[in-house]
């Protein structure tokens, strides 16, 4: 374990060194991350300049929700970005190499290159969080800070588990990125609003089938101290970060199962 | 060291029905196509052996190697590499093998070669002093000093391959798999590679499994070859045996003394009486006074043939051409292609 | 994706005897060895091939349409919630707004921006763009054929997915006969504008090799500014003025608004007039940039 961590760290450093050589792409890719995540927030800002609330949530409250979701997304994206390129690693046969090296193949995929896009998302997330805490009525206590941190990590694990499970389909099918794109979009779109807006059915699905609710909506409600209408009890709401751990383990099991049917068709 | 038994790999792919609306029909019907890439292959490789694993494109070479290295899980059969089932215990297997894929580098594209070697040492948990010793030795043996600090993407193919070979052998694996290691290399680079492989085999008793299209690699390095086609083993044995079984014919090249056309010509009948046959000149420029006689080494002794020829004709010079592996293998595959 | 089999590319190293001006003339004026209308069959083949490619990747296309369907559903619910909070901000009834959003997002989805930029990048990278100019089937007709083919594929896929779209968003016939008549004209203009914008974007490949990231950035920003998420009339003051002066609203907001009756009568005709203005302006702009770029390639050899 400790050994693997040391090796992974060495590979990560190498990936960052490699990426640092392409300065120009740095800027464009980072801007892309900012535009991608920023345009969603711009929409909310625009409509809430004319309307008082969405589903009973005011602009400052939705800003907190949006910031938590985006922060969870960034925490997921920075280490797991390379999953996006699993399609091409498999197609070009590069993945073969990961199976003849003494380190978990997933860790090798993740440390193959360092992506700068994820920095754009991180910058946007931190920016919106600062903005949101300045306009929202938040009373930070050590307990809520701790809870928020755990919730962000839990949210990242939910997104990560889903991403790992879907990406691992690349071992069987040629093109998986559109499915990843769709899943990303579902998390982004549903996750940025109070789920009650989408109706009872969608809310139930987004809570118990795909746990979008636990990424940001439930934690945001806990932090804002307005847990009515969540569809889960207060206790469950406080346990939200655990959902991520469970979900991530499930995702990894799917990955292991799919890996067994890897056929190394690339050449 | 390596024990392969009844190894079989079957690929299953969905088949697209031809014709209009084919795309729509694939959604409702589930037709699949089964292809057997490797079919009941069995062999043993001893420690320290260097084996050439040969076959035409699509014969199942790569698929076999991928199962032996643990990349692929076979449909049936078993592989045992130094006491490890490769695909079941990939990481333990990885520690004892080195793999070179000629077309795909394992080096870090954007980093200097030196960094790639450092990373390999870390990956394989090499003790620092062992790494330093191996590093110095390989830089020297493969003559890599001048391009160690250059990013791998800027290296020539020959330099990159030397780097790849060093990376695969750095941690002194017991087994080395080489998949087309000399593809696209020039003569000098090929020679360096072959010398290096021979050296590590001699020094450490490394077992080497080699697939290649360049049979000169095999002839230079391997005492044993395994030939496969359509997923089945066609031949498994020594190179010499292969030649004598599939290409028993040696060729005697005779230059007749030019004495103004007075000497009797060497005719087909006369040659047949001596237990040989006249063959056409395969050289690029036909030489006027030269004839080529093909004879079976097992039946006719070369010395007898030469003596008989010298007695009847005015022979100026003789030489014997042995069959090369390239020709032998080409002959085997072309024979297989014909309906038996 | 070119009409091969008609004429081979000249072998490497062959110098084109035409001057850059000639080449540009050929390109801009369609004055190739044979005019494009004589090459109808070849062009049709190009378009068909493009459609076939879209069908070959139908799973990808459907999943990407799924992204749009999710977007439509989310927008519908969010706007419903907004209307519940305060029903009188917009003059448009909620149902019309949802139809507008559904239509606008489908239009954005069907824009072949990636098709255009990829095609241009490939041709420019191979350096074959110059030879495209002297082909019997000129470059512009070829590009148009590609667009038509891509559009055909997109429409077929949308038709298949229409029931799902109807549930996620909302569908309705055009507001009235006039809207029904003007909508196709406006939509055609919208496609021309989107196509020309994509060509302008794709031509960046003459100067830099990478355009994929930029294209994605463009798609994101343009779909926001085009009114596919928020009708242009909702934008706050300054932003609304900016958006009205940009071409993006003419690609989406105008045709979708005409369809649902958000823009009517003289306003509708004026909006289509503005669209036509954009077509001319962007067409001339694209031609100028193109001329410069081609001269660069011809003179410097790429």
Tags for this model:
heterotrimer; A: mainly alpha; about 70% helix; about 0% strand; globular; B: about 350 residues; alpha/beta; Alpha-Beta Plaits; 12 helices; 13 strands
Largest sheet of chain B, order of strands side by side? 5-6-7-3-8-9
For the record, the count of structural domains of chain C works out to: 1
Domain count of chain B: the total is: 2
Pattern of helices and strands of chain C: HHHHHHHHHHHHH
CATH-level-4 superfamily name of the largest domain in chain B: P-loop containing nucleotide triphosphate hydrolases
Uncertain stretches of chain C: 1-32
Q: Which percent bin holds the helix content of chain B? A: 25-40%
Question: For the record, what CATH class of the largest domain in chain B applies?
Answer: Alpha Beta
How many strands, which pairing sense, and closed or not: the largest β-sheet of chain B?
6 strands, mixed
Q: Total number of helical segments of chain B?
A: 12
Assembly state: heterotrimer
Kindly describe this structure.
The complex is a heterotrimer of chains A (267), B (340) and C (302). Chain A has helices at residues 2-19, 23-47, 59-80, 86-91, 95-99, 105-110, 117-135, 142-167, 177-191, 200-209, 212-223, 234-238, 240-259. In chain A, helix 2 (23-47) runs antiparallel to helix 3. The mean pLDDT of chain A is 88. Chain A is mostly helical. The radius of gyration of chain A is 19 Å and the shape is globular. Chain A has one domain (2-259). Chain B is an alpha/beta fold. Chain B is built from 12 helices and 13 strands. Chain B has a 6-stranded mixed sheet with strand order 5-6-7-3-8-9, with helices on both faces. In chain B, helix 9 packs across helix 12 (325-337). Chain B is globular, with a radius of gyration of 26 Å. The model of chain B has no long low-confidence stretch (mean pLDDT 84). With 302 residues, chain C is mostly helical. Chain C has one domain (20-300). Chain C has helices at residues 20-29, 40-56, 58-85, 94-110, 113-126, 129-133, 139-168, 177-202, 212-225, 237-245, 248-251, 253-260, 265-300. The longest helix of chain C has 36 residues, at 265-300. Chain C is globular, with a radius of gyration of 21 Å. Chains in contact: A-B, A-C. Chain A binds chain C through residues 25, 28-29, 31-32, 35-36, 39, 42-43, 46-47, 49-55, 175, 178-179, 181-182, 185-186, 189-190, 193, 197-199, 202, and chain C through 57, 59-60, 63-64, 66-67, 70-71, 73-74, 77-78, 80-82, 85-86, 89, 210, 213-214, 216-217, 220-221, 224, 229-230, 234-236, 239.
């Amino acid at each position: 374990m400790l050994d693997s961590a040391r090796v992974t760290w060495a590979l990560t450093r190498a990936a960052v060194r490699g990426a640092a050589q392409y300065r120009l792409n740095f800027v464009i890719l980072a801007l892309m991350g900012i535009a991608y995540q920023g345009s969603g927030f711009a929409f909310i800002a625009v409509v809430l300049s004319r309307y008082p609330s969405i589903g009973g949530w005011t602009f400052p409250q939705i800003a907190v929700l949006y910031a938590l979701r985006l922060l969870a997304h960034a925490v997921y994206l920075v280490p797991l970005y390379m999953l996006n390129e699993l399609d091409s690693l498999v197609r070009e046969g590069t993945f073969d190499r990961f199976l003849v090296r003494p380190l978990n193949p997933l860790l090798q995929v993740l440390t193959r290159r360092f992506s700068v896009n994820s920095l754009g998302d991180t910058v946007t997330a931190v920016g919106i969080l600062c903005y949101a805490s300045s306009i929202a009525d938040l009373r930070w206590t050590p307990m809520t800070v701790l809870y928020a941190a755990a919730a962000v990590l839990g949210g990242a694990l939910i997104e990560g588990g889903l991403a790992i499970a879907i990406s691992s389909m690349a071992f069987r099918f040629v093109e998986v990125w559109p499915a990843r794109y769709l899943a990303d979009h579902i998390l982004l779109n549903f996750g940025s609003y109070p789920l009650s807006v989408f109706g009872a059915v969608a809310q139930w699905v987004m809570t118990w089938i795909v746990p979008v609710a636990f990424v940001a909506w439930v934690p945001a409600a806990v932090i804002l101290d307005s847990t009515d209408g969540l569809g889960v009890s207060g206790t469950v709401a406080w346990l939200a970060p655990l959902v991520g751990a469970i979900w991530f383990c499930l995702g990894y099991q799917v990955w292991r199962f799919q890996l067994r049917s890897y056929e190394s068709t690339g050449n | 060291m390596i024990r392969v038994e009844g190894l079989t790999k079957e690929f299953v792919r969905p088949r697209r029905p031809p014709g209009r609306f084919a795309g729509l029909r694939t959604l409702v019907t589930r037709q699949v196509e089964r292809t057997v890439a490797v079919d009941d292959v069995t062999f043993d490789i001893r420690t320290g052996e260097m084996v050439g694993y040969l076959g035409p494109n699509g014969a199942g070479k790569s698929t076999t190697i991928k199962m032996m290295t643990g990349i692929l899980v076979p449909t049936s059969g078993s592989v045992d590499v130094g006491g490890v089932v490769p695909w079941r215990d990939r990481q333990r297997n990885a520690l004892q093998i080195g793999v070179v894929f000629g077309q795909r580098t394992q080096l870090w594209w954007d980093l200097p070669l030196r960094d790639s070697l450092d990373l390999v040492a870390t990956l394989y948990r090499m003790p620092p002093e062992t790494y330093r010793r191996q590093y110095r030795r390989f830089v020297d043996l493969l003559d890599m000093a001048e391009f160690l600090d250059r990013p791998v993407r800027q290296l020539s193919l020959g330099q990159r391959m030397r780097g790849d070979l060093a990376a695969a052998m750095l941690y002194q694996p017991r087994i080395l798999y080489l998949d087309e290691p000399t593809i696209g290399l020039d003569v000098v680079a090929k020679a360096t590679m072959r010398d290096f492989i021979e050296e590590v085999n001699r020094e450490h008793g490394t077992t080497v499994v080699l697939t290649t299209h360049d049979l000169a690699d095999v002839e230079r390095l391997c005492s044993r070859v395994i030939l496969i086609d359509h997923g089945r083993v066609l031949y498994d044995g020594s190179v010499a045996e292969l030649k004598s079984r599939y290409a028993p014919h040696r060729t005697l090249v005779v230059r007749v003394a030019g004495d103004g056309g007075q000497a009797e010509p060497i005719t087909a009948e006369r040659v047949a009486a001596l237990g040989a046959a006249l063959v056409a000149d395969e050289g690029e420029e036909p030489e006027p006074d030269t004839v080529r006689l093909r004879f079976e080494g097992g039946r006719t002794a070369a010395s007898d043939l030469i003596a008989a020829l010298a007695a009847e004709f005015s022979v100026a010079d003789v030489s014997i051409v042995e069959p090369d592996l390239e020709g032998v293998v080409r002959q085997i595959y072309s024979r297989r292609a014909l309906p038996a | 994706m070119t009409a091969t089999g008609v004429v081979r590319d000249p072998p490497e190293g062959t110098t084109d005897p035409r001057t850059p001006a000639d080449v540009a003339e050929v390109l801009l004026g369609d004055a190739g060895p044979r005019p494009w209308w004589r090459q109808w069959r070849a062009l049709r083949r190009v378009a068909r091939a493009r459609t076939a490619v879209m069908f070959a990747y139908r799973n990808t296309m459907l999943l990407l349409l799924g992204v749009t369907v999710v977007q439509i559903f989310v927008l519908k619910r969010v706007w419903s919630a907004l209307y519940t909070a305060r029903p009188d901000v917009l003059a448009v009834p909620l149902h019309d707004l949802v139809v507008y959003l559904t239509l606008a997002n489908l239009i954005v989805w069907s824009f072949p921006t990636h098709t255009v930029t990829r095609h241009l990048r490939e041709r420019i990278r191979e350096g074959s763009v110059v030879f495209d100019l002297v082909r019997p089937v000129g470059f512009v007709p070829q590009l148009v054929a590609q667009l038509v083919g891509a559009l055909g594929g997109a429409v077929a896929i949308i038709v298949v997915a229409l029931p799902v779209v109807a549930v996620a968003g909302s569908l309705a016939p055009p507001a009235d006969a006039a809207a029904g008549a003007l909508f196709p004209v406006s939509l055609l203009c919208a496609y021309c504008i989107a196509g020309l914008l994509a060509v302008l974007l794709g031509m960046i490949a003459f100067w830099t090799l990478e355009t994929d990231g930029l294209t994605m950035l463009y798609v994101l920003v343009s779909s926001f500014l085009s009114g596919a998420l928020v009708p242009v009339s909702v934008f706050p003051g300054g932003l609304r003025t900016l958006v009205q002066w940009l071409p993006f609203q003419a690609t989406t907001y105008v045709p979708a608004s005409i369809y649902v009756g958000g823009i009517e009568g003289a306003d509708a005709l004026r909006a289509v007039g503005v669209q036509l203005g954009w077509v001319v302006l962007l067409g001339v702009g694209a031609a100028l940039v193109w001329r410069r770029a081609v001269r660069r390639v011809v003179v410097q050899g790429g």
